[in-house]
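Example record for the data management plan.
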Amino acid sequence: MRILHTESSLGWGGQEIRVLTEARGVARRGHEVAIAAPAQSRIYAAAPDYGVPRIALPIARKNAGGLLAARSQLAGTRYDVVNTHSSTDSWLVALACALLRERPAIVRTRHISAPVPRNAATRWLYRQAVHTVTTGERLRRQVVEETGVDASRVTSIPTGIDLERFRPGDRTAARAALGLPPAFIVGIVATLRSWKGHGHLLEAFAGLAREDLQLVIVGDGPQREALEAKAASLGIAPRVRFAGNQRDVAPWLQAMDLFCLPSYANEGVPQALAQAMACGLPVISTPVGSIDELVDDGRTGVLVPPSDPAALRGAIAALLGDEARRKALGEAALLEARARLGEDTMVDAMIRVFTAAA
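Corresponding structural encoding:
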């Protein structure tokens, strides 16, 4: 098959990483795969690192220029399937295909749990897709309920990760390589967006009086300046390391003792959470989006209410004092990741969807 992915997002996070990982995996199975994205986007810049051919299209905004560019690309190259990923490129591709006599099948991947607008235009958009893919079962049910699309046309396919790369490692060696102290390290890997809950994590951490604790925040984004100021105002700046974006987050995960992702909105199945579990880490998160499909509370991790720093602090404190429980949670998380979250599992499922659509 000839498959084109489209992505209008200019940012970088789990969604963009999934798109490129999936595209690379499908291409390795012998299919012709490319990605179309704005030339100024992070995903366009990163595509060569994944071995994915790229096409620059001005599709960052819903306007006539983006529509005409999408139509020209689809008219000039015959694709079997176009897999759209964000709202803007999904609209542009759907409209462009409506203007074509010969058109590819559209597969719409929805990565987040934000509400779907309940209006006729959105229902039309989702019904233009031959199939919709979500990253979790709860998101699948949400799409069916909020768009009225037939349930048989929506499939949940969790994001797969490279289990050879994300696996338990030597914590001491990882810390030495990264220049991290011999402390108990609580960590998070996530783009610094408000809904990821970094602010709540800082508040929770500030209430833990132990001086041998270090909080490591891996990632960057629009909230960095505000979060650094918050850490300073809470008096914990010396115990918080903002590591910024990292090309390879696996060593950072391998250096942690405990992983926290206190998101309060917009999640599907967060890629970083799956990566942490594959590294054998005990995890604390929230039942937002489809997180509770991945984290079985009390077995493969701990779930706390969203936007509740006190509950988060209590969960961290409980695990700090219980090494045996941390070990049991980490081992169960590792088994869950290996059983369900391999990259091959995701790629196989996506190829089935593409084949049926084409």
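Summary line stored alongside the record: Residues 231 and 237 are 5 Å apart (CA to CA).
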